[in-house]
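We were asked to recover a plausible sequence for a given structure. The inputs and outputs are reproduced exactly as logged, with field labels preserved.

PROBLEM: sequence recovery
POSITIONS: 361
GIVEN STRUCTURE:
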């Protein structure tokens, strides 16, 4: 096999994977995924959707009920239990919420111990890995002397010290406060990219998934809902669940008449001619606002400000839309920078139609 053929083999390939805890509890159902070498994939979804079960199956801590798992073209687990390769032989690095550093070893000792699987690491090698995570000056300290963020960085250095072919990360930033999480997450992304390792990260945070990953696989109830680039899931969501999970949405249900649905922003075609009602989803940043010269809500695209708040580098404006289909419509709009119209002000509201989604109800 030549080098080009090797480069075409995915780092991870999952085919029709299922895992059942008991007769009545399905953890994973018919999941198929492909992760190429040097890429990062986020396994995204709510708590209990099966994300961590997938990680445990890949790591070899569980055996699949059906399907197969391949690492760099080699079957490491299958539903018929043939060809099962134990966790210690799968050449996988792991980074979890609990960093599990050895308390009796120094920072350098923790990294050196992890590298022993592929031969003893020299002190220069250890320092090189610590330099990647900016922890060289802490090499002689012990885990209890480090902050949570510093421990996480040491755990990352340890995870990549053995040059694994695949790195698994299970909600690695969830135990950090917001500001520290941003800093550590950014460093982790660059270290993984620098190391050129394929990585699969479990998270329930869509923003984190979009920040870290080249591809996202969204799960629900053990099943794959949609997979693709962050842009695909954000701008082309498969259903209302996907649209709402990727970010906040303005959501309301409207009736369909003659295949058309009347929205505050005009008439749109229903995706289902048989549907009697549809779900409308609009992302808050899709609404553009400017002060109106109108003093009334006589037109559907004139809306009244209910409240406005500055949130970091953007403003959130609460809007009241005139009654539509016998219901009041309350919308949120995100505006970049400081934009704080007074309560009761009338706004002209226009829509980026690329961020309005219609799903059959």
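RECOVERED SEQUENCE:
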């Amino acid at each position: 096999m030549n080098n080009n053929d090797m480069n075409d083999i995915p780092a991870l390939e999952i085919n029709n994977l299922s895992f059942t805890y008991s007769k009545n509890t399905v953890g994973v159902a018919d999941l198929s995924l492909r992760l190429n070498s040097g890429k990062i994939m986020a396994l995204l979804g709510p708590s209990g959707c099966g994300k961590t079960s997938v990680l445990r199956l890949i790591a070899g801590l569980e055996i699949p009920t059906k399907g197969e798992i391949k690492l760099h073209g080699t079957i490491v687990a299958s539903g018929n239990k043939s060809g099962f390769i134990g966790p210690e032989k799968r050449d996988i690095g792991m980074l979890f919420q609990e960093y599990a550093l050895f308390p009796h070893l120094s920072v350098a000792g923790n990294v050196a111990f992890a590298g022993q699987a592929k031969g003893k690491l020299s002190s220069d090698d250890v320092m090189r890995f610590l330099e990647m995570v900016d922890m060289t000056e802490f090499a002689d300290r012990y885990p209890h002397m480090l902050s949570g963020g510093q421990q996480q960085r040491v755990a990352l250095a340890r995870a990549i010290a053995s040059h694994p072919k695949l790195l698994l990360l299970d909600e690695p930033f969830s135990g950090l406060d917001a500001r520290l999480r941003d800093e550590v997450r950014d460093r982790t992304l660059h270290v993984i990219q620098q190391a050129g390792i394929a990585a699969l990260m479990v998270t329930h945070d869509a923003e984190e998934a979009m920040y870290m990953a080249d591809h996202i696989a969204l799960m629900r109830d053990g099943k794959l809902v949609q997979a693709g680039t962050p842009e695909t899931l954000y701008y082309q969501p498969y259903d209302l669940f996907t649209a709402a999970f990727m970010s906040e949405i303005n959501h309301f249900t409207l009736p369909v008449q003659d295949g058309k649905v009347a929205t505050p922003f005009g008439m749109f075609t229903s995706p289902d001619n048989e549907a009697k009602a549809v779900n409308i989803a609009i992302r808050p940043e899709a609404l553009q606002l400017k002060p109106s010269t109108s003093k009334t809500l006589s037109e559907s695209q004139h809306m009244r400000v209910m409240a406005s708040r500055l949130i970091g580098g953007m403003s959130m404006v609460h809007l009241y839309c005139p009654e539509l289909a016998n219901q009041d419509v309350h919308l949120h709009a995100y505006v970049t920078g400081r934009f704080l119209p007074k309560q009761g002000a009338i706004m002209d509201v226009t829509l980026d139609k690329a961020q309005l989604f219609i799903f059959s109800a």
